[in-house]
Design goal:
The chain has about 160 residues and is an alpha+beta fold. The protein has 2 domains: about 120 residues, no CATH class; about 45 residues, no CATH class. The protein contains 5 helices and 6 strands, in the order αααααββββββ. The strands form 2 sheets. A 4-stranded antiparallel beta sheet has the order 1-6-3-4. A two-stranded antiparallel sheet has the order 2-5. A hairpin with a 5-residue loop joins strand 3 and strand 4. The chain is rod-shaped and about 75 Å long. It starts with a helix and ends with a strand.
């Protein structure tokens, strides 16, 4: 009797996992939400529907988050190879692929914005640090606050700042 209850609970939790992963992927595709925002909304929707308690949705949501983090650094092809279809239902694999693709796009956008914030141009004033020419990789070491000159090597005007 207890073994049947354990199997029923396991089956329910696997179903919730699949629903959370799939709904999270849908939300990411719909509105460019962050992964955390999409997962939170998916958990809220599923618990509001009454099928699962908020606590249970939170518990299973942590498994979805953990699994995404474990696979986040892999490219789409690597994910397809790492997730064996016989171990994981095709629906979950598809959901992970969509989540990872959306997360990769979001991370790429974040990296581009971050890189742009480190971009400095000739004529601007900067604090001490190292400027690396984005064209020839020549470095200029600024020891004090100063106006940025053109690159001494190639005379280009766009630099990346490091400290």
């Amino acid at each position: 009797m207890n073994d049947q209850n354990d199997k029923k609970t396991e089956h329910e939790e696997i179903g919730l996992y699949e629903k959370l992963a799939s709904r999270t992927a849908d939300l990411l595709e719909e509105g460019k939400k962050t992964f955390d925002e999409a997962l939170k909304r998916a958990k809220e929707e599923l618990s509001a529907a009454g099928d699962f308690s908020r606590e249970r949705a939170d518990k299973i949501g942590e498994y979805v988050r953990r699994d995404l983090k474990a696979n986040a650094g892999k490219a789409t092809e690597a994910v397809k190879k790492a997730v064996e279809p016989q171990r994981v239902a095709a629906g979950v694999q598809s959901a992970f692929s969509r989540i990872l693709t959306s997360a990769a796009e979001t991370l790429t956008e974040l990296a581009e914005r971050s890189e742009k914030s480190l971009e400095y141009k000739t004529g601007e004033i900067t604090s001490p640090g190292t400027l690396t020419c984005k064209d020839c990789n020549a470095e200029m070491h600024m020891s004090k606050t100063t106006r940025i000159p053109p690159c001494p090597k190639c005379h280009k005007t766009i630099f990346r700042k490091s400290y």
